[in-house]
Design brief:
By secondary structure, the protein is an alpha+beta fold. It is built from 8 helices and 16 strands. Strands 7, 8, 9, 10, 11, 12, 13, 14, 15 and 16 form a 10-stranded mixed β-sheet that branches. The radius of gyration is 19 Å and the shape is globular. The structure holds pyridoxal-5'-phosphate (PLP).
């Protein structure tokens, strides 16, 4: 079985043997943050952006950063190598650590728990590639700091399950008639040739793939960063979602209604091809 080696608090060990205490605050309180990065041909994609965001998430919840970027790079390169290299994703989680007791306030002496694993990148079926994905819309019931990449993801889990139960692949989150993001993705619409995505705020996660998409689109098509009304989403020519493990994917149906032609649109084809190209150019080079 591939992807059997994980990292836990200083050691590389078989994933099946990894154990943490039930007193870990990540388990008790969801007091923990994480990152997920794709790896192509052994190279982590947008490593610096992911670890800048991890540093920010840690700082926002006041967990001292356990490693510098260089240390993270070495640790994850070792994990990738021990899992055979090539194409995969890596997951990194840092919890505040464990204490003997259960107190909401931070313990005085505590060492963060660091866990990392490697896994297979999800793939799309041939039908999904040809037809695009479907989404439902859900009203936001998450907390007020969705910009922090915390593992406290119960609301996102429930939304994603609601989508799966409806036969859809993503739940697009709205608040008071405004489109925010997907349960695990950033959201874009195309209207009259213009690419639109909501601005970063406490209501959404600043997506690394969102930034990569905006960089690729700049100069190719007009880009607007502004609020998107739910009605605009439903009337869009194209809807895209983006995430580190899924790059940019077309949504061709929302709440059972076709988007545009009901097929992946021409601007998605163009930006997605540019995305693949930029990834291929980087593959095999060092991440920092
Ligand atoms: C809520 C949410 N929004 C957006 C994203 C996309 O972020 P990224 O492109 O950095 O993976 C994610 C990824 O997990 C997410 O969970």
């Amino acid at each position: 079985m591939p992807f059997q080696v994980c990292y836990l608090d200083g050691d590389f060990l078989p994933l099946q043997e990894a154990r943490i205490s039930p007193l870990d605050r990540g388990f008790l309180f969801g007091d923990s943050v994480y990152e997920v990065l794709p790896v192509f041909d052994g190279r982590m994609f947008r490593f610096r952006e992911h670890f800048d965001r991890l540093a920010r998430s840690l700082s926002e919840i006041r967990i001292p950063s356990p490693h510098s970027h260089e240390e993270w790079l070495a640790l994850l390169e070792a994990l990738i190598e021990r899992n055979g290299g090539g194409t995969m994703y890596v997951y990194v989680q840092v919890t505040r650590g464990m204490e003997f007791g259960r107190n909401h306030t931070f313990p005085a002496q505590v060492r963060p728990t660091v866990f990392a694993l490697a896994s297979q990148l999800p793939t799309f079926t041939a039908e999904q590639r040809a037809q695009g994905l479907s989404a439902i819309t859900v009203e936001d019931f998450r907390w007020g700091r969705c910009d922090i990449k915390t593992t406290a993801l119960l609301a996102n889990v429930l939304m994603k399950q609601q989508a799966a139960d409806a036969g859809a692949q993503e739940a697009i989150i709205t608040r008071d008639g405004e489109v925010l993001e997907g349960a695990s993705t950033s959201v874009f619409i195309v209207r009259n040739g213009v690419l639109v995505t909501p601005p970063n705020s406490h209501r959404i996660l600043p997506g690394t793939t969102r930034d990569a998409t905006l960089e690729l689109a700049t100069g190719v098509m007009p880009v607007e960063i502004r609020a998107i009304a739910l009605a605009e989403l439903l009337a869009a020519d194209e809807v895209w979602i983006s995430a580190a493990t899924r790059d940019i994917a077309p949504i061709t149906s929302v709440d059972g209604n076709p988007i545009g032609s009901g097929k992946p649109g021409p601007l998605w084809q163009k930006i997605h091809a540019a995305f693949e190209q930029s990834r291929l150019q980087l593959a095999g080079t060092r991440a920092l």
